[in-house]
Amino acid sequence: MSATGSNTPHRALRSGGSLQGRVQVPGDKSISHxxxxxxAIAEGxxxxxxxxxxxxxISTAACLRLMGVSISPIEAGAIxxxxxxxxxxxxxPEAILNCGNSGTTMRLMLGLLAGRDGRHFVLDGDASLxxxxxxxxxxxxxxxxxxxxxxxxxxxxxxxxxxxxxxxTVIGTPxxxxxxxxxxxxxxxxxxxxxxxxxxxxxxxxxxxxxxxxGADLTVGGEMGRHISVNPGATLHGQSVVVPGDISSAxxxxxxxxxxxxxxLTIENVGLNPTRTGILEVLDQMGAQIxxxxxxxxxxxxxxxxxxxxxxxxxxxxxxxIMPRLVDEVPILCVAAxxxxxxxxxxGASELRVKETDRLAVMARQLQAMGAxxxxxxxxxxxxxxxxxxxTxxxxxxxxxxxxxxAIAAMLAKGDSTLARSEAAAVSYPTFWDELERLRS
Length: 441
What we know:
Elements: E1 10-13, E2 20-24, H1 29-40, E3 45-49, H2 55-66, E4 70-71, E5 80-83, E6 97-98, H3 103-113, E7 120-124, H4 135-142, E8 147-150, H5 151-154, E9 156-162, E10 170-172, H6 178-188, E11 195-198, H7 206-214, E12 217-221, E13 227-231, E14 240-242, H8 247-259, E15 264-271, H9 278-286, E16 289-298, E17 301-309, E18 317-318, H10 330-338, E19 342-346, H11 359-369, E20 373-377, E21 380-385, E22 393-395, H12 400-412, E23 417-420, H13 432-439
Parallel strand pairs: 2-15, 3-14, 6-7, 10-11, 18-19, 22-23
Antiparallel strand pairs: 1-23, 3-5, 4-5, 7-9, 8-9, 11-13, 12-13, 15-17, 16-17, 19-21, 20-21
Helix pairs in contact: 1-2, 1-7, 3-6, 4-6, 8-10, 8-12, 10-12
């Protein structure tokens, strides 16, 4: 495989070989975004160790800088400092806030900015982000008094936010989405009275954990932590944040290590927050050989090292009940299903159609080009594994998780492949291609 720069038009993917060694995956993307946002509206300095130095968190930092927040350069290995401006200290920017390819940036910014009374903001992004639905945030924010406008009735960027005083309320979200929930919690910090957000199922809870650590008056209750209440007015204080490795990035190595003959990988310092470990549950159901080593707690988040060795995997079946804890790992599990003897079924996954790409359609299209036997459905797919995949011309279709999933499929295929737009991996894992080459034996 080529180890040349990420601008290579078609990256060569060599089939065969094994994977051996230890790897540290980049910092968790969700925690990286939130540490920047919460640090910005806190009093004092926030120090962030292990922040993901990738395009999406860099977009969040760039937007915050335009509103008067001082943030040190985001570089690999650097401790990032954020000088907070307080709950109401964000300035009206002179320029459009460019969220790049980051749905998290845009959706959380909507909640952050909606209550900035008298200030006006315009948010935009790249062509992919302009196609992603934003009404799912704008609509519940409107019930708090927010004024969010955009194309398609406020559903599509560019979006204009006119800051207004917000009122506290009880909001039931239609989908279990950490982005929707987090936007509402950010808005609730400056509302006129208490706000309660009720989810249909619990989504990842990094915002709740971190807001409490920063000093927000926040309580979690109800069945499975689905009711989150915020009393406004508490001052947030800058914190030292250690960002654990992103389990969504670790998922590529976990599946590769489970499938590739002779593989033995240890992935260090992985966040094991129970709202994110659906991938471990599914791999356990499949019979994967994964050990959790050195489990520990870092800044309120459970962390451990994961050792994976190759074994025989069984087909799997899962649906919407686990999807909030698994949504980003579905593309690599599609690859895993191709190498299990028997039929695997994914359902309740319609949320994947509104990610960076329509991930269900893209993964079906790319794996079918390799010879996979896949039936795509509106909310998922059926994959009949055990048929050998063949090397071919592949395309990430600009999606970072698709790019990395196809890299693993290509190693296991018969014959070499090429991958168009491989640079998409940099959105969440800038060093992925270098690490793949380093671990290869």
